[in-house]
Amino acid sequence: MSVSDPDILDQARRAIASIASPDGAILGQSPCITGLSVNGGRISVSLQIAPGEHEAFMPVRDAIEAKLRQLEGVTSVFVVLTADSPAPAQKSTSMPPKLTAAPAKTKPLASVRHVVAVASGKGGVGKSTTTVNLALAFRALGWRVGVLDADIYGPSIPTLLGLTGKPTKGQGRSLLPMQAYGLKAMSMGVLVDPETAMVWRGPMIMSAITQLISDVAWGELDLLLVDMPPGTGDAQLALAQGTDLSGAIIVSTPQDLALVDARRGIAMFNKVNVTTLGIIENMSQFICPDCGSSHAIFGQGGAQAEAMRLGVPFLGALPLSMALRSASDAGRPILARDPDGPLGLLYQSMARTVMGALEHEAGPQVTVRH
Ligand SMILES: Nc1ncnc2c1ncn2[C@@H]1O[C@H](COP(=O)(O)OP(=O)(O)OP(=O)(O)O)[C@@H](O)[C@H]1O
C-alpha cells in the first residue's frame, strides 16, 4: 500500500526534528525551517538562514536530504537555503522593482559556456514553446544544449519535451539531467510542487533556482537556456541579478500590451547589466492551413519596430501555427521532427544570430527610453 502525503509529512517532521543546526540547536526547536510540504511523494523544505551562513548549513542540508530520502513513499527531496530578506511585492503593471543589495552571482559552471535567459514581460506569449524549439535549433546547429525550466509558476517544459518520471541521482548530491531529443533538461516542475512554489518570495525562488543550476550535473554544454518565470517582478529580478547570465532573449507577441511588458523585461535586464541578445515576435501571423493565406491576427511587426526603437536586435517573427501548437502540446516539438522545415529554418536563423552575439562576447549596450 502506498504511503499517503500526510503520513510522509508527519514522518518528515519527525525525521528532521533531531538534526542539529550549526549553532547546536536542533531543527525541531529552531525557527529556521520556514516551509515543509509533500506532494505526490515530492518533499520540499525551505530553511531561512542568516547571510553568510550558507557554507555552515550545507551539512545540515545534506543531512535533511539523506534522512528524508530514506522515508518510504518519498520520490524526491528538494531543500532550499535562503538568506535574503524579502523584496517588496511588485504589481505586474509597475516598472521593474528597485535593486536592493546585489546578491553574489551564482558561480558560473565551468562546464557550461553560456547561460541565457528566455523571458517575457507577461505570461502566455509562447516563451516556453520558443525556449524548447530554440534549444533544438541550437542543437541542430551543432551546440550541446541544456534547458532549465525555472518557470516555477507554470512549469511546462516537461510537457513540451514529453519528460516523464523523476530525475535520477548522480554522484554525491548531484542530480542527473533528464534527456529528450538530444537536449539535457531539468524542471522545477519535476522537483517542487507548484503550489508550494507559488508562495515563495523572490529570494527563495532565486535560491532554489541557483541551487538547481549548480546541483544538476549538466556536463559539458555550449548553452544552458533558462525558461524564466513570466513577468518582471521581484522573483525575476532576483534571478536575473543573481545568475551569471551571458544574455537574455525576450519573447513578445505583437500587441501593444505585450510590448509594454517586453519593454519592462528589457529594462529589468538592463538594470542588472545583462545584455538583451534580441526580441522574438511570436504568434506574428496566422497562416491558414487550408488556403495558405496569411492573417495578422494580433497585428504584425510591433516587436520589430520596438526592437529598432530600443536598439535591440530583432531575432525574427514566428507565425501562429497550428502544427507548432499541436506538436508542442503533445510533447513532440516540431523542431525535433523537422529541423530543416520552414519553421525549423526560422528558429535556426534566430539561433545563429544569438550564437554570433555570444561568441563575440557582446550585444549592443541597451538603453531603454520610456
Ligand atoms: N507560434 C505559436 N503558434 C501557435 N501556438 C503557439 C505558438 N507559441 C506558443 N503557442 C501555444 O500557446 C500556448 C502558450 O505557450 P507557452 O506555454 O509556450 O507560453 P508561455 O509564455 O511559456 O506561458 P507561461 O507564461 O504560462 O509559462 C501553448 O498552448 C503553445 O502551444
From TrEMBL:
What are the protein's UniProt keywords?
ATP-binding, Hydrolase, Iron, Iron-sulfur, Metal-binding, Nucleotide-binding
Q: Does the keyword Isomerase apply?
A: no
In Gene Ontology terms, what is one molecular function of this protein?
ATP-dependent FeS chaperone activity
Residue positions binding ATP: G121, K122, G123, G124, V125, G126, K127, S128
Q: Which residues form a coiled coil?
A: none
Alphabetical list of InterPro entries matching this protein: FSCA_dom_sf, MIP18-like, Mrp/NBP35_ATP-bd, NUBPL-like, P-loop_NTPase, YlxH/NBP35
Please report the stretch or stretches of sequence annotated as the MIP18 family-like domain. 10-77
Per the entry, what this protein does is: Binds and transfers iron-sulfur (Fe-S) clusters to target apoproteins. Can hydrolyze ATP.
| Family classification | Belongs to the Mrp/NBP35 ATP-binding proteins family.
| SUBUNIT field | Homodimer.
- Protein name, please? Iron-sulfur cluster carrier protein
Gene source species: Roseibaca calidilacus
